[in-house]
Amino acid sequence: APFGVFAAASMKTALDEAAARFAAGTGETPPLLSFAGSSALARQIMQGAPAALFVSANTAWMDTLEAEGLIAPGTRADIATGDLVLIAAPGYAGELTIGPGFDLAGALGGERLAMALVDAVPAGIYGRAALQSLGVWDSVADRIAQADNVRAALRLVALGEAPLGIVYATDALAEPRVRVLGRFPPDSHPPICYPAAVLAEFDTPPARAFLAFLTGPEGREILNRHGFGSPDRTE
Amino acid sequence: MSGWLGPAEWQALALSLKVSFWATVLSLPPGVLVAYALARGRFRGRELLNGLVHLPLILPPVVTGYLLLMTFGRRGPVGGWLEDTFGLVLAFRWTGAVLAASIMAFPLMVRAIRLAIEAVDPKLEQAAATLGASRIQVFATVTLPLIAPGLIAGAVLGFAKAIGEFGATITFVSNIPGQTQTLPSAIYTFLQVPGAEAPALRLVAISVVVALAALAASEVLARRAAKRVAGE
Amino acid sequence: MSGWLGPAEWQALALSLKVSFWATVLSLPPGVLVAYALARGRFRGRELLNGLVHLPLILPPVVTGYLLLMTFGRRGPVGGWLEDTFGLVLAFRWTGAVLAASIMAFPLMVRAIRLAIEAVDPKLEQAAATLGASRIQVFATVTLPLIAPGLIAGAVLGFAKAIGEFGATITFVSNIPGQTQTLPSAIYTFLQVPGAEAPALRLVAISVVVALAALAASEVLARRAAKRVAGE
Amino acid sequence: MSLTVDITHRQGGLNLQIGFEAPGGITALFGRSGSGKTTVVNAVAGLLTPRGGRIELHGQTLFDADAGIDLPPHRRRLGYVFQDARLFPHMSVRRNLTYGARFAPPGNGPSLDEVCALLGIGALLDRRPGALSGGEKQRVAIGRALLSRPRILLMDEPLAALDAARKAEILPYLERLRDSTGIPILYVSHSVPEVARLATTVVVLEDGHVARTGPAERVLSDPATVRQIGLRDAGAVLPATVALHHEDGLTELAFSGGRLFLPAIDSAPGTPTRVRILARDVILSRPEPREQSALNVLACEVTELRGGEGPGMMVGLRCGDDRLLARVTRRSATALALAPGERVYALVKSVSVARMDVGTG
Amino acid sequence: MSLTVDITHRQGGLNLQIGFEAPGGITALFGRSGSGKTTVVNAVAGLLTPRGGRIELHGQTLFDADAGIDLPPHRRRLGYVFQDARLFPHMSVRRNLTYGARFAPPGNGPSLDEVCALLGIGALLDRRPGALSGGEKQRVAIGRALLSRPRILLMDEPLAALDAARKAEILPYLERLRDSTGIPILYVSHSVPEVARLATTVVVLEDGHVARTGPAERVLSDPATVRQIGLRDAGAVLPATVALHHEDGLTELAFSGGRLFLPAIDSAPGTPTRVRILARDVILSRPEPREQSALNVLACEVTELRGGEGPGMMVGLRCGDDRLLARVTRRSATALALAPGERVYALVKSVSVARMDVGTG
Ligand SMILES: Nc1ncnc2c1ncn2[C@@H]1O[C@H](COP(=O)(O)OP(=O)(O)OP(=O)(O)O)[C@@H](O)[C@H]1O
Ligand SMILES: Nc1ncnc2c1ncn2[C@@H]1O[C@H](COP(=O)(O)OP(=O)(O)OP(=O)(O)O)[C@@H](O)[C@H]1O
Ligand code: MOO
Ligand SMILES: [Mg+2]
Ligand SMILES: [Mg+2]
Q: Which residue ranges does the record assign to the ABC transporter domain (chains D, E) (predicted)?
């Protein structure tokens, strides 16, 4: 039977391609990919979900699983990093340079800044951290439209409902309707990384092989093509 | 109690009540109208109307929210027109949350009211007509009072649904504390974070209490109205 | 048509139909039982039962899914017991999706059936009793056939709801293709991919068609049953 | 003041073709179950659209198939008393009664107080319909129709659901209604005593067509109507005048053929009234009977003999200017050598003229 | 074979205290609307639990308040014919009829064919109840009750909703039922002619208690029962035997006081039967009447004179071994010098003994 992969929804396109390539290259049956929010997946894993590999968008949930002893020792690895970008809706003419104290509130012109939930969803948490370190959070805190996931925030900007939004660079890359105004300095927020790990209960060689594929050159190439960065080090 | 809930949660509770209340109140009149048309009307497109009303029940809420966003968003055809014509903005406002909750609660409401209308004896309506009441007057003075128990049941069902609505609301109007952050959004937020189950369940308990209170009240009201209607 | 949908989408459609069908079929008997108890019973805890039945309507689906996961998950109290005792695993199986859909559709079903039962003339049941039928026999031979239209309406409402159920399902049994990835989950997955609205809307169209067909069929069936029941 | 009905319709297996004229007073629609009575009343009320024909009330066209006229019920201004009362369960008796008035054009119909007094329902005003007896319900329904200031009252078997005692309670109200308000009434019944007591005009329906129509006295006293009326209920209706109230509790009436004694009735001497004498209650005698208990012995002339399939015959009699009906066996008819022109005595027990069969008017 | 009822109950404003015994045959519960008839029947059926007392059927206790016995309806094995038929709308006539049999213990009740023949419903078996006429519905309801092999039949005004013609259609079936099956019947009615025709025992209810009870002939022919029965319907019930069918369509009956002629009835000579003679249909004469149309002239002796408030008197008569009732005016009673012991002739028109009032048995 194919092994199961639980992955953060934001990795769907990249992982779909990687899985196909992995299967084609190794002759294995392709893994069964399930995408949902990282929190839902993590909880399901804690309830014994039949996943051999977990790819999270969220370090906190991976930490929780690790603390519970659910991941196969030594298999945790960051497979990708991400960048946070400021995007603009179609037809938004303004330009903006991201930097300390930059005039985000002015650029919004009284309208909304689309983000993922700033207390709950990783993209939102990172975004808030970035705005806080740049000193502009307080000026826009009450102008934020929080979506339940980063793709929904992206959609708000793509549809023009919000003129500006903060999403991952990967999302911006995949959505032709939005324009990237700028990239948040990596040091303005905690490092964005996508940890993956083989899960102890369903640990199988093919799952380990797929994780290795993802961290290997071929996997990196695919992830890079979808806008993810490469982690400097693997654990 | 105020120590038990933070100010943000109080805000979410108050907003949920406000949104659900208005969603219920505002969708009652069209609900009655549509239910009446479905129960008594013999027009082309009746099946279509019936299907349309049921759509929000059939579709995943996220899709409903997405369709609402496309239609009633500021760039959407209806949303733009509403803003230009009436200055009415739904997107990112609590008014939009009301719209989303209304739409989601609508099929349940219509179902309950339709069943009530189908149970009204047309002979009483005929009697009213022979006494000089026009069709609208008959409806207002005979049909409407007689379906009161059904109306109450439908309204409370709608209210309960509105209290619990999440997917369509957050997709359409996002989560803006004080504006569109209803109880379910707050609950969802807590559920995303490891270890925050306790506050989430606290909010769940609150919405359960609110909705059950509404349900219980409705059973009492409906029974009283049914007695009234039975002419005792 | 097969060119229009990919194999994964066909799989999702087939799974959705299977899950909704079983959810409907399996929740009908308890639905009838609970509806009968609520309509005719005069027992303590009636209000409580009523509230409990309505919970899935009131709670955000994600919460329902969360509670299901905690209860029926493999490490949950009931889930573990089911697995140890009967070898029955619900979590992350299509059977779990059936459970989630059943739970979500249950209040709608019970409502519709309860209204139908309340409309049955107790005089007919009395007549059956004087003819020698015990309470259960009366129910089986008189009450049940007479509520057939309500049963159909309730079942189809439940089916429609099950077809659209998303939040509880994905939270409880995840989104495993071929196992638990129903149409709404598939739609959600597409909506996670920028620019994939087209395939998402294609799936939306399919679920709308399926649910509307069920609705239309139910109207016809219910009308036919109503005629039968009217003794014509 | 009149209603003209001339309609065709198809319903179930029945082909209706009905034409009649209802002048003032009470017009009774009489006929067996299924003969089309309710259908006609519904057509007049506008609750049913006939296939063809015309309905006209006081000169206004309510319905005309050819001209495409079909006034909706609420614009016909008629008061319909349904067989089953149909009171609004969610309104008090008072609100039921005043329901129609708010839709009616201002006018000088009877007031609430007048109607309450007429129908004896003043004490019920604040009750709910569910707390009324059958007879009370029906009276409220009549009052409700009346207070809508209708141009005609339609009453479909308003008393059929009630037992004999309740009927006796309501009939006097209907008589007062007929006499005190000028509103014409179309009255459906299959009770001959009711029709005999109330109707000024009778329309006999049979299988969807009008079998006979005319003034009540004439239609009911006609031996040819026996088939529709039934043997048990066949009888003559005589106009009479109250002459005298005797001390022993009898009232003496004068009619063209002499005097009639019956148990005391409530009307003052001089009041015109109407009595019904059932054919089966009349005994014919050749010699003048003596020393027997029947107080009413009327000298008559045989006008007509009609035999049916059974052993009985219907004998038409002239008594003064009025007509009587007697039902005798063939054997008796032969034994008495009855033939048109023969003179006989009719014995009618005063007590067999029941109160039910006496109406004022 | 008997039913014993002795219960107390409170319902609405009414205090019921009812005790009576129903032997075989038809026991009629008779009384004004609201007197408690349906309440009693429901108590017997187990659809209502009385406050106190006992109900016993064929020696089995159905209900005993003190002993805490209250058999549920489905274990009482009785056939209840409701006023409103209550056929199961979702079943064919056939399935309605056979419904009860599957719950009944095996036994030798009547077969479906027998019941269909008895009630004349063989042609209806595949129809739905909605497609039946009122009379047909009621007959199916009777058949359904009968086929459940009940130990007693309860019939609550089974004919009240029907017009006279329909009633006449059904009564013979009930008579056949009484005579051909041994099942006792508890029959509720407020129609005196029905009771007179059918009942072997009469229980007269008044305001929740038993005003009179006894064999039908005695209760109905008793001048004291007039108050409950009403003047119009008071009369005697005579047992008689069919003697001869005459060619002119008359049937001659023999009874203890002589001969009676009435329109042909369907029974063979020698059949015991029962005729009712309404008090208001009897004329008393001192001399023997001659050359008049009433065929029945009976020599009688006055036994009793009862005056009421009105101008009439009820005269009890002995005729052979049987009793007759006559209603005359006070004036006539005085004129004829009626007194107990006096001999008079009673004139009864043969045709005034209506077919409805003739029963076999
Ligand atoms: N809705 C209907 N559909 C088909 N046939 C009908 C309908 N209503 C009445 N009929 C038929 O039309 C005929 C006339 O019915 P109508 O109700 O006018 O009779 P009626 O004279 O009022 O009888 P009743 O004295 O029983 O009230 C009957 O044969 C009846 O069966
Ligand atoms: N459910 C009830 N609640 C209160 N009072 C009732 C109820 N049912 C009947 N009654 C009252 O009990 C009394 C007896 O009723 P019951 O039905 O036995 O009368 P009945 O003799 O059958 O009359 P009818 O000839 O009208 O059927 C009546 O006064 C009635 O008003
Ligand atoms: O992959 Mo996420 O959890 O939608 O940011
Ligand atoms: Mg009718
Ligand atoms: Mg009764």
A: 2-232
